């Protein structure tokens, strides 16, 4: 199976931009490569869609990777990776709570920081700091993506 | 538009009211503690010595009415001693903890803060005695009284000098055990009656802890009874004429020490209250005077349990009499002084332990009681019996 | 209906649900844990956080970069200064700012001073949870001395807003190095007392050894960090794994213990305090006595790009993910806080423990809610 | 016998702890009685903000709005007008809302003329939160009363008894160490 992603190197880590459908397979592959420590999971609003950024590291040699993927507003769904790194359980809840990404297969996807009955996701750019919708806010068009590159044979991921 | 007052209007030093808290006054403090001790001693002399002597010399004790008045006066005096002891110990404990913790402790009421407890008591009296919605009102109000009365009852049986004891019971030891067990009822009932979960947990812990510690405590007392051949506390003290019991009865002494700290519900055995776990445990919902009674009971016990250590193991009132006739009033007063000094030392040790140690866990406490102290106490009992036989044979 | 039966509204007859918190002395802030109790045994533990949520991340999107440093302080307010660093490092990376040597060492000294301060707060309040009141007052008194030293230079005690892009905000007070050296001497004399009162105390050992055992694999998987992780036998320390500032030039050890219990977490923090003393001593020696304390930073910061940097604060791996879109305000900042990840361990550690152990375990995790809820 | 050794070890450890506690009894207390004893606040400390005027009583502030822009919680409001006499601006209004002030001293940091400074005043608590709004007259008054203050540009300054303002000696200055060291080498 070929995974659709692009890699580049930023500072001391390898950054993977991955197609949302291949998000979980890529992370499974990275887990297989020994990236055992969950550093961070960020959800963010890009004004055309939502992005999830996963930072991982390998405790054995300190190699670091960043994986990100974008999902559209109308279907902000991604498979959960809490079974690979249980440490992302609350991070995914936070990304759901503040940004609005739904993680399929998350064991307990509730709001974590804001109140349970809130309907908005406050870190989306359409809301101001008070939680009110900004007048005239419009989503931007989805950017054109150049062709996804395919994983070369024997790619070792984090080893730069 | 500024409504912020200028600094000049507020940079005024508050006026000092009669004392200066910034000035440490070791002299005043020492004088105050001497006065505390002296007043307690005076009260003891009046209650145990002068009043009985007066009634006896006038022959009032023969009539029923006279005896009734005697009993009432003595009860009031005993209550007075308990209250004075609690008032003193509260401020002394707070001062001691302050000293140990590199702070000054209460400083603001009275010179060097020595009147702190008086104002504390006034504050508690003036406070609304609030009861939450789903308490059992009768038991909720009764529980602090039970606890306080039990502490107060123990006082009655403690001899402070030769012949100076309020009730010279021939089953004094059993009475002590019974009275201290009664205190557990107050704690358990108070915890359960308040209808809160923290109180209930505290009550459970109190029940488990106090019940398990009563056994080694009673066995340790029994060992002393066996060794000295009497359950009467005055006889036990008399028995220590030559050698204090702490030497032959060292094992029961250790058992008693640990068990009495547990009985006192002070660290390391303060599980029923456990502020950081149960938010006060059995007294979570108590306020005002009801709380004050629990508090007073605790401090009366902080006096009585060390007093019992002295009575049972450290020779009670024994001390050099400088040739005085032991039956004379002066000798008895001196004896009560020795008794109070020894007790003060042991109160200090109890407070010291309280300041140092963290808290045990409930199951470790049971472990210690049933697996550690109980066998030890039994061994101590057997040892006491052997020693008794040995003494009698020799 | 009255009486004790009424206070057991749970779906199981033998279980009692207790809301521990948000106002509870042992939760160190506003944590709420719904605890199911079977007698004294914890049958379930469901943590609820967010009572202190201020949405820092949204506010920071509306602030310029220098303004944000003020907000980062307010996360882990017990070790205030340390929180500024990951954000600053990330922005420095994106801007390519050079930090002068002196600033690097000063940062290390302040960083470790705050580690000492934070560990002292943890030790005091932790022992308060264990029922010992005296260490609390000792530790706070010692911490006071650290804060006084910091105030003399940084201008505030808890939230000093002292680090800045390219170095530190102002040069140190002339007495600074002497004060710090004096404090270290003083503190080294106090440490044996803490050992006697806490680690060596048999009562404490009875409470802590073998309690709340966290296996190594679980700790890694849950993303635990800091002393919690190192007490489980993983020698992961950001200061070693991704060195920043002057740490590469300083020799220190990462204390690790295999047991993973409450005692191990206490032990690791004690040893960290000793290591901090060593680090500060070395840093004082190596700091250039004169020299610039601040590198050159563009006057109007236009940051573009995305960077995740982490530092090892007192509680563990604190990260900042900064995304800039080329304006003077960040597009998105995400703070990865160590206590947030560590608190995920509550169900793992608490279930099956005794209620008193639950308190001990919580205090050994040492959460600070400013940073959990952000 | 190992049991006995264990018990002995425990008793010894408890005794050590108790000794550690009791050793403190003799040490003097560290309590400060606040209204009667006041702490010494270093001038660098961000206790309060003040506007400093020149020796002739004119404002140092040149109304450049740098502090208003730098404030993270946006508590500074400045109104200015063109200087009729010369170039530049004159300050008309300077409001500082201490309700939301975070005491970060970013305003002090950016001030190009050291007009807004940190002072060691700390007794400004009031009973009503609405009273925590300071205006120019108030901040000026704080500045007039201040004996010592700090700003990054001019360092620590002191007001001499005759009312003149001058830079404090290097012992009081952040960064005074360099000066002191240079002086030592020179001597």
Explain what this protein looks like in three dimensions.
The complex is a heterotetramer of chains A (160), B (394), C (374) and D (187). Chain A is of the alpha/beta class and 160 residues long. Chain A has 2 helices and 8 strands. Chain A has a 6-stranded mixed beta sheet with strand order 3-4-5-2-1-8. A two-stranded parallel sheet of chain A has the order 6-7. In chain A, strand 3 (37-45) and strand 4 (49-57) form a beta hairpin. Mean pLDDT of chain A is 82; it is low at 153-160. The N and C termini of chain B lie far apart (97 Å). Helices cover 68% and strands 0% of the residues of chain B. Chain B is mainly α and 394 residues long. Chain B folds into 2 domains: 25-126; 132-393, no CATH class. Chain C is 47% helix and 14% strand. Chain C is built from 15 helices and 8 strands. In chain C, strands 1-2-3 form a 3-stranded antiparallel beta sheet. In chain C, strands 6-7-8 form a 3-stranded antiparallel beta sheet. The termini of chain C are far apart. Chain D is of the alpha+beta class. Chain D has a domain at 48-172: 2-Layer Sandwich (Alpha-Beta Plaits), CATH 3.30.70.3270. Chain D is built from 5 helices and 8 strands, in the order H-E-H-E-E-H-E-E-H-E-E-E-H. The longest helix of chain D is centred in the N-terminal third of the chain and has 21 residues, at 2-22. The radius of gyration of chain D is 25 Å and the shape is elongated. Chains in contact: A-C, B-C, B-D, C-D. Chain C binds chain D through residues 63, 66-71, 73-74, 134, 138, 141, 144, 151-156, 159, 161, 169-177, 192-193, 196-197, 200-203, 289-290, 293, and chain D through 9-10, 13-14, 16-17, 19-21, 23-24, 30, 42, 44-46, 70-72, 102-106, 109, 118, 150, 152, 170-171, 173-178, 180-182.
